[in-house]
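[AMINO ACID CHAIN]
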Amino acid sequence: MATDEEHTRQRLKQLLGKPGNGNCADCGAADPEWASYTLGVFVCQSCSGLHRNIPQISTVKSVLLDPWSISELEFMVSAGNNAAKAKYEQNVPAFYYRPTSSDCTLLREQWIRARYERNEFMCVERQEPYSAGYREGLLWKRGRDNGQYLSRKFILSEREGALKYFNKHDSREPKAVMKIHTLNATFQPTKIGNAHGLQITYLKHNSTRNIFVYHEDGKEMVDWFNAIRAARFHYLQVAFPGAHNADLVPKLTRDYIKEGYMEKTGPKHTEGFKKRWFTMDERRLMYFKDPMDAYARGEVFIGSKENSYTVLPGLPPSTQGYHWQFGITIVTPERKFLFACETEEDQRDWIAALQSMVSRPMLPQEYAVEAYFKHKP
């Protein structure tokens, strides 16, 4: 005969089969095995660790390993992920970034705190830091030449359609003006070496410029990120009237398709291969001497197969010089680009990333970018 504890465990397992409970309430990961018995949600192991940072709000237990009381079980029965979603996500702005299991810890932790601790989506006035259309504050910015992080004043203005930063806190003239329509932001904690590190990119004379920033306060950094997304969202609503939110939201910010080291040679294919850091941002394949460089050493446009772009494994037999073993050849209408990867896995991943672009038909605006690459000074 089943003991009370076994009976409770069976009931908990049955609850995991109810709609909404089969995925983590916070990041969407499948098959959660932990639960907050004070909030009434089922979460994955990774997010359960973040709930421990707010013990005054949430207390977690393992569904499979920890003992559960009858009252705790009854609360889980009465609650669940769908009920929590209805309560804590009443007014999430369309532009607000909802993290997934693959996102960095900062985004997931601040999403958890925003909902359960700060109740930001139950009280709309608490969303002002990122929804007001204007944001001003200090961020630590990496110097382009010396790599030192210095405090810089940043102003984001939807009315002016720009993000600006100033070298001195009392400066009148900005050091840089980044137009919202070319702006992107992505968290890069590993690359920057800071858990709150954000990489901001924009186009300057149609070339990509990188800026690396952070703030000691995680909420502050995520508020900046969502303020940029809000500005982009409102810009796109004006640029594409009548477009559905579902079509605009994926365009607000984007992670890079792939990053990592490869070796490359020059246009004559007789120069020695040099190790470079590569970043693939949509159809722009950029290479840098160092991952933290402000500007790329060069950019390659990756078009579609309909426009005579091809990605091939290996290198031409005539290729000279020492290089890594696993080659990739990108054929464009103008020339061939030769790259080499250190491992077969890297080669396979890069080919898959490049192929995803080549197999996708080009959009009208991408033809304008291609034309610029062909006539680049």
User: Anything to note?
Assistant: The radius of gyration is 24 Å. DSSP finds eleven helices and 17 strands in the chain. The chain has a mean pLDDT of 94. Residues 38 and 58 are 5 Å apart (CA to CA).
